[in-house]
Amino acid sequence: MTEQSRVQPQDGAALLPEPFLNWFARRGWAPRAHQIELLARAQAGKSVLLIAPTGAGKTLAGFLPALVDLANRPKRRPGEAHRGVHTLYISPLKALAVDIERNLGKPVAEIGLAISMETRTGDTPAHKRQRQKFSPPDILLTTPEQLALLIAAPDAKRFFSGLRYVVLDELHSLVTSKRGHLLSLGLARLRRYVPGLQAIGLSATVAEPDELRRWLVAQGLSSPLEGEVPPKAAVGVTSEGTAIRPSAAAATPSARYAGTSPSRGEEPMADLITVAGGAKPEISILDSEERVPWAGHSSRYAIPEIYEAIRKHRTTLLFVNTRSQAEMLFSELWRVNEDTLPIALHHGSLDVSQRRRVEKAMESGSLRAIVATSTLDLGIDWGDVDLVVHVGAPKGASRLAQRIGRANHRLDEPSKAILIPANRFEVLECRAAVEANYLGAQDTPPLADGALDVLAQHILGMACAEAFDADELYAEITSAAPYARLSRETFDRAVDFVATGGYALKSYERYAKIRQTRDGRWRISHPRFAQQYRLNVGTIVEAPYLTLRYARSGRGASRGGPVLGKIEEGFLESIAPGDTFLFAGKVLRLEGIRETEAFVSNAVGNDPRIPVYAGGKFPLSTYLAGEVRAMLADPARWKALPDQVSDWLRFQAEKSVLPRREDLLVETFPRGQRHYMVTYPFEGRLAHQTLGMLLTRRLDRAGARPLGFVATDYSIAVWALDDMGSLFKRGKPPLSTLFDEDMLGDDLEAWLAESWLLKRTFRNCALISGLIEKRHPGQEKSGRQVTVSADLIYDVLRTHEPDHLLLQATRADAATGLLDVSRLAEMLSRIRGRIVHKHLEHISPLAVPVMLEIGRERVAGEANETLLEEASLVEEAMGSG
Amino acid sequence: MTAVPLEKDAVRGGMISVAGELALCDRRGALFFPDHGLLAVSDLHLEKGSSAARRGSLLPPYDTAATLACLKTVIDDFSPKIVVSLGDSFHDGEGSARMPELFRSRLAALMAGRDWFWVSGNHDPDPPAGIGGDSVREISVGSVLFRHEPSREAGEGEIAGHLHPCARIVQRGRSVRRRCFATDGSRVVMPAFGSYTGSLNVLDRAFAGLFRRDGFVAHMLGADRTYAIAGKRLLPG
Fold first, then answer.
1. In chain A, where are the structural domains located?
2. What is the pLDDT of residues A307-316, one digit of tens each?
3. Shortest CA distance to A97 belongs to which of A59, A139, A142?
4. Helicase C-terminal domain location, by residue (chain A) (predicted)?
């Protein structure tokens, strides 16, 4: 909102009150076309979706209708009752809400508006929250979780009675998660309190704007509400650069797993205003003098060139995909930092005070570079960044565009970015991302149906607010776009789940949390359930973390020194006391773990055992995967690639074959004492892990005696004692059978039963749905032996009631989450009849990257029994067991 | 003198010797003394699900069924003459009264034709109501003594539960945590048998001083056998 274009005010004059016009004039600005357009539509009673790039004055546009309405409002007379919240602003980040208060406060003061504005987040002190309840501000800036709490309070209806607008920031990032599901239900409740409520969504460019437009307004009504308009009312203020989703990316998950959306063209939608991006960003891929590695994720080869780029720019923002990459890059940069440039590190695991220091330094312009993970993805304004370096492949075209948007908030000047591929396949992926960016292609994921665990949480919340009638609540919930297709039967099962657990064995009637009273309405049976709800609200389930703390010298795991941050329990589990690792730019030695704290000391030497690369959180997008396959298949496109990469592909064509875009190449070859099968689906690491697991099961049944597999974002390697190539040639089994879609039936079920991935998913669902409670600070010490672990509940439930609502929710999550089954299903159907088998005598050039991961990666698999056996055998051999 | 088919796959487990008595650590968490035809299980925590439900946590009401089903497979395999349930057999004092009739009759069928001892635990200090069997504070058989909580002093020949031991190893960069029998040859702390029972690492402070350092072994429960792991290979957490 810092920049306004210097065009003459035209129609704005008619809509904007005098003080606003004066303010614009004083600043030498004119309101932008989309700001006036949005104001006009809001004043006509419409809900609006504004899609605009960073720096387009999106925030001011979003608030303008509220500010104008509030400015025209008559003054409150002494003694008149408080008017309640006029406008609710919801942001995914606590920090963003604070940021907006600061940035919006300035124009409000300068225009001379008497408008009160306050934040309400988890950090807001209790007394302030209490005060806000009886004396609410005009504009309340808050988060989805706080909204859930507000609407679940008994006085919610009164509190929101004066509400006119809801402004939803960073909508594109909210809608894809369970937070978005919860928020959509909150919005549905607000619309019930205030039927004329208007929603204003602010979003970055997405593939399917219509999904967001439906999200903003009530669905499933026979006739559109006043103020809603049919889809044709969409306007592009400028048409250039609007979102397209190329056909390859438009594929929707198979109906079996995620459910495809039937055409809902007739559903009500918010108006659309699209602002084209300004100057195209200048994105280049580092054409290194050095050899680009075959495999790995470190990008270490490029450190001198990255450092040079930092030296040549004012402020550089370096993005990486994971925390461990951030640690590695930061420490490598400091190794070569001869000029001692101020380079800082920022990731979500660092202690809060350290993160705040870094953010302050960044704002004041005293940093030359900052290495960051996705904690900085969202719209916080970082000022004077003139270069974005993306280390590692971006994994998605839209993700890249949003990250580059961080640099250079001046709309008319091009942003500048350099991509650093960590290995050769990433060169192809980076190239595809750059081309997509040039075309303006978007690959944001399609929206999934609302999750059932979130639904259960919301139902309890609504019972806390006031007794509900099931018919009314069902109508309200299905007016939220993510739940528009929720069947009445599933809704009733969710109510039953909230009441008594929803079990076939009806033994908990007397312990019901909500009960139907004589008037047919459901109410909570005890106030303590409202308390329970408030403590467990929200959908953010953090992985179990341990606090990382310095041990007092020489005393091992004793009570300790300063806190460094927090670290995943899962990571610490894989290392033993005495092992070293990188954290906060330091090499640390694990001394011991006590309860929820890990004690460390500074290690001697610079060579830590670097945290395992746990894979990016985001798998390669379907769109980029398709583009990489297309590029492989088309030698004409290799000209855009560095020589070392195009040589590599030519070599592959010579030694084996390059698959066509829609084909699946399977190579088999012997090496050492083993036989290998390497295949290249390009469907991302998560789907590949699942596929690898299923393929090994099937190969085992076929008698090939598989030993293990590794999966990357691009390919999978399976190794076995038997010659798989010969088996395939003899049709034992034929490859088409091995890759048949029926592997997603019984094989998947059998594997899922034991999979820790599914157990973790179940735990999240159990927490969100309220079946088990979040542990709160101070409770952790109650010890493992008294808490019922989610794993045990999962085992029992799966055996006794496999169709339970929570298991249904768990499977739905797994389809798109950690297992990415939906993507695997699409792939298997795509390659039917298009498998190309090459039985080779030697490893092929294309297979080298994944083969190098063997030994470097932890071997995927669930053979915990084997590990136990090894451990006990060692004992026997040493004679000490 | 044993009539038990120890070779049978279903009962693969580790033989240990406690205070001179031979015992088999079963993979499901039961301890069988072939010379006495005695089977010990500890910390069944029956009706833990309904106990949580009373406090508003509506866990699946199938834990009792699951625990009894598992107990049945163990009893079927060993056909013991004597069964000792080593305390915390019910999750709370009203557990036995609350247990649905269906499960009461299943339990009665397991108890029929053998001696059954309910050792009192901290969760169930009083004898279970209307279930049958003998309720005792402790019971000694041969050279071993069964009691719920391990004593801090003389431990020779003591078989106890209460602490729900588990053990953890890291092998090839991966962590495996399992319930276990903890023993140093002179006493045993048994794993919890109940389907909703959590566990505590044997390296936790709660176990301090119970075992001799040399000869301390964790018999970790596996899918079809137990694995004996020396104490020095175990990790905390």
1. 12-274, 282-439, 452-540+757-814, 545-602, 656-755+819-866
2. 999 999 998 9
3. A142
4. 302-453
